[in-house]
Design brief:
Number of helices: 10
Shape: globular
Distance between the termini: 79 Å
CATH architecture of the largest domain: Distorted Sandwich
Helix content: 25-40%
Bound molecules: S-adenosylmethionine
CATH superfamily of the largest domain: Hnrnp arginine n-methyltransferase1
Order of helices and strands: HHHHHEHEHEEHEEHEEEEEEEEEEEEEH
Number of domains: 3
Largest sheet: 7 strands, antiparallel
CATH topology of the largest domain: Hnrnp arginine n-methyltransferase1
Length: 359
């Protein structure tokens, strides 16, 4: 019997196989933007013909879309790794019998750190199938597969005892973006507290703060806005510019800070949920200038005394979060600026009242 994509069994190894049809299927799925499904289709081919060049390339193209490229930069961020390692050692040494839950395993790095520190049981969940599959291999290759079990699921779909033998005693997670909340840490930890963690579980990170600073910077503003260029008015293109934030390194762009850093949010992950918040501030500019952008960053406490930050000047892979203002107002030291910091549980953004209202 020739196997077609409709009759393909879940297993990769199959008896007879219409490779051309599966290649076309993979390509179709890719074109539909279903990159994880495309990768799976190509893996079926590679299961029977591991040298199939078209399938290898197709798989790699699909994975390139599905898996963000920041994983590598993040894994090379030594400060991030060292501080997590230090904090994990401290938490595991305090209770080696703790069942550890790593939410968002990625390569399995933090889960393996917990195992290396002496944890006897670690469950590491990863919501992206290609990443989860790779984590299984990394953990096996490193020889930690007797301690670390990778669950290829979003934590919010996990159950006790289905995926975790019991509620975990130590949560280790690093699901933060440059603006802290963008990977859903608030809702994810709140869900874990309710469904996956023991009542007195240690939560790492346990606190975080977000800071913001007013910035004048033509080069940063240019990353998100155009006007008259090459003899044309390209301004309508700004309809596509980013309304919220993007990541960039403040110190690599010519800029002047127009205020002190301001603390805008303070989260305690042991109690916080993903409810929206707003903080209203009257900011006194420290010098006159054009307010092109709000730069913001976080400080995140892993265990007491061990903090990670992506503040300006720190060479973290997160860089800083930059929100450009579409129409940058002029600000003066004498005139406080009304700045509102908002989040809806996942997206941080800022509103700046028009200059005349802030006088
Ligand atoms: C920033 S990476 C960190 C990876 C790894 N923990 C490390 O520190 O090297 C976050 C990973 O978490 C995964 N992820 C995010 N939220 C998740 C959730 N709620 N459940 C499972 N995986 C999640 C993402 O797919 C991504 O691979």
């Amino acid at each position: 019997m020739t196997l077609t994509r409709d009759t393909a069994p879940a297993q990769d190894a199959v008896p007879a196989f219409d490779v051309a049809e599966f290649l076309a299927w993979g390509s179709d799925l890719h074109d539909q933007g279903r990159y994880e499904d495309a990768a799976r289709a190509y893996r079926l081919i590679l299961g029977v013909d591991r040298h199939n060049q078209e399938a290898l390339l197709g798989h790699n193209r699909a994975v390139r879309h599905a898996v963000p490229r920041w994983h590598w930069e993040m894994l090379h961020d030594e400060e991030r790794a060292e501080r997590y390692d230090h904090a994990i050692r401290r938490a595991v040494t305090a209770n080696p019998d703790a069942l550890v839950l790593d939410i968002g395993a990625g390569s399995g790095l933090l889960a393996m750190m917990a195992a290396r520190a002496g944890a006897r049981g670690v469950v590491a969940c990863e919501g992206q199938p290609s990443v989860a599959e790779t984590a299984v291999e990394v953990v096996r290759t490193a020889g930690y597969d007797d301690t670390v079990r990778v669950v290829p699921k979003m934590s919010t779909r996990m159950t006790v005892p289905g995926d975790l033998p019991r509620r975990a005693d130590l949560l280790v997670t690093e699901i933060v973006d440059c603006g802290l909340l963008g990977e859903g840490i608030l809702g994810t930890i709140a869900h874990a507290r309710e469904h996956l963690l023991a009542p007195d579980a240690t939560i790492m990170p346990y606190r975080a703060r977000v800071y913001a600073q007013l910035v004048e910077s033509v080069p940063l503003h240019r990353k998100n806005h155009v006007g008259k260029l090459h003899g044309f008015d390209l301004a309508p293109f700004n309809r596509l510019s980013t309304l919220e934030y993007f990541d960039s390194r403040l110190h690599r762009h010519e800029h002047r800070t127009l205020s002190e850093p301001l603390r805008v949010f303070d989260f305690d992950f042991r109690t916080a949920d993903a409810s929206p918040q707003r903080t209203e501030l009257r900011v006194r500019p420290t010098s006159a200038g054009r307010l092109h952008a709000i730069a913001f960053w976080f400080e995140m406490d892993l265990v007491p005394g061990v903090t990670l930050t992506n503040a300006p000047g720190v060479e973290s892979h997160w860089k800083q979060a930059i929100q450009c203002l579409p129409v940058p107002p002029l600000v003066q030291p004498g005139d406080p600026v009304a700045v509102t910091a908002l989040h809806d549980g996942r997206h941080v953004r800022f509103e700046v009242a028009p200059a005349e209202e802030t006088a």
